[in-house]
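Q: What structure does this chain adopt?
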Amino acid sequence: MEANPILLQKKYTRVMEIAAAKLGISIREVLDFFYHSITYKNMSEGISDMHCRSDEYLADEICDEYNIKNKR
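A:
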């Protein structure tokens, strides 16, 4: 399923804001990480309809990826 590009951009923003708050990092840091993440790739390509999941769920996925990459 393909998402509306404008709505998808807004979703990315909400997910990044939630993830930044949960991780205690700046929006800039989460932005740098987000666009290179597996979660972003799956959302942007519509894999497993990831873009249909809640913002909170997706933010948790980003946090998990970030913590694994940074061994937190």
